[in-house]
Design a protein that fits this description.
five-stranded antiparallel beta sheet; three-stranded antiparallel beta sheet; 10 helices
């Protein structure tokens, strides 16, 4: 006796490893779908995150086909190693935090979809190892060749549907519970529900600026200011909400060392708007040039610009402002919670110093300056202006009033 499992003579059988390969192919294909679905949001957060998701998805999709067509031993080893590596990356980002990117050391949230993906990857690792070391003479009823993979496919499809229905792999169960009053027309009902969900967004932060809220599509901007692109109104997903809180908290944490204006000036920030204005913008040319050379736009430890308000307590740090070079895609890790704007009426020198405004009556600028559209900008506020920490803009009066009531001084 060699320990092999036998079946009655004449009953069709099939190698158990074949059934296992089909099931592993289904699990790998499901992980590829999840990574494809998450790629777009990861690209919005940081290009390297998105590239990792796409490369991973294609490798997992290719492996799911290869393990069925040509189950070479090197392919099984590669599948086990690939998925084990992805699991390791997942554990690191959920415990230690991101190693690279715009918010290093920030711990990623755990969601249903990413948890499901990790479980399936663990199944592929264990299954691949089993295929490498299992006995090849273990056989099962031929009917299981269809029944077991079919059940596996149905279970995977149901779980994928749950993970993706809310807009992405980490967004399950995250839709707002609030509902809007019924409307007589389906489109009106949808708009009312979207408005109610947008109004219900209130994300707590660790900054003095208060909670993050959804920018209002009807907001009035200052003359000479417009959105970089179209005004975005889509309801942010759970991942986008988490990314916005992380960005705001990290920006505040890293910028607190510049609470004193002299500290910012010592670090290389210079005024690019007249210093007699109630609100003054300071630019760090070194940091902006690093961004133009390909560095991350959302580098919380090195924001390209800082904003100070003149108050009775002195200069108060009211915001960090990220600036994207004109030829770069503006990252939106928070989706519609992180929107960019430009100015069209500023008279600037070649160094970007604002020396005047081009008016509608006569769009002439002082000698040595020109009127041109600015690069895209995005504020993260540190004082409670209307709209919260990611408000697109606020008037000078609102900013100074908020700064007067903020703690500390930047003298």
């Amino acid at each position: 006796m060699d320990g092999a499992i036998t079946r009655p003579a004449g009953r069709p059988t099939v190698a158990a490893v074949t059934v296992a390969r089909y099931c592993l192919a289904i699990a790998a294909a499901a992980t590829a779908v999840i990574h494809f679905a998450a790629a777009g949001e990861h690209f919005a957060e940081y290009w390297l995150f998105g590239a990792f998701m796409l490369v991973t998805a294609w490798l997992q999709a290719a492996w799911s086909v290869g393990v069925v067509v040509r189950p070479w031993r090197w392919l099984l080893r590669g599948g086990a190693a690939l998925n084990a590596g992805i699991i390791a990356v997942y554990i690191v980002t959920r415990t230690v935090g991101d190693v690279v990117g715009p918010t290093p050391h920030d711990v990623e949230p755990v969601g249903f979809g990413d948890g499901l993906c990790t479980v399936l990857e663990a199944v592929v690792v264990v299954g691949s190892c089993w295929l490498l070391f299992s006995r090849k003479d273990w056989r099962v009823s031929r009917s299981q060749l269809f029944a077991v993979p079919s059940v596996s496919a149905v279970v995977a499809a149901v779980l994928l549907s749950v993970a993706l229905v809310a807009g992405g792999p980490e967004m399950v169960m995250s839709a707002d519970a609030e509902t809007a009053p019924a409307a007589s027309h389906p489109h009106s009902m949808h708009m009312a529900m979207s408005s109610a969900k947008a109004a219900a967004i209130k994300l707590t932060t660790a900054t003095p600026a208060g909670a993050i809220t959804m920018p209002k599509p009807t907001m009035q901007m200052e003359p000479g200011m417009r959105m970089a692109g179209t005004m975005c109104g889509a309801i942010p997903t759970a991942r986008q909400r988490s990314a916005t809180v992380k960005l705001v908290d990290a920006t505040w944490r890293d910028a607190r060392k510049f609470a004193s204006l002299p500290a910012a000036q010592a670090a290389g920030y210079v005024a690019i708007t007249p210093t007699w204005l109630p609100v003054v913008h300071y630019l760090n040319y070194q940091y902006y040039l690093a961004t133009m050379r390909g560095g991350p736009v959302l580098n919380t430890s090195r924001p390209q610009s800082l904003v100070y308000a003149h108050t009775s307590k002195g200069a108060v740090l009211v915001a960090a402002m990220y600036i994207a070079p004109p030829d770069r895609v503006t990252p939106r890790p928070g989706g519609c919670l992180t929107q960019w704007h430009v100015h069209t009426n500023l008279c600037q020198t070649n160094l970007g110093v604002v020396v005047g405004l081009a008016t509608a009556a006569g769009r002439s600028c002082p000698n040595g300056s020109t009127n041109r559209v600015t690069p895209p900008m995005m504020h993260v506020w540190f004082v409670p202006v209307p709209g919260g920490p990611t408000a697109i803009d606020a008037s000078d009066a609102q900013i100074v009033h908020a700064a007067e009531h903020a703690g500390g001084s930047g003298k």
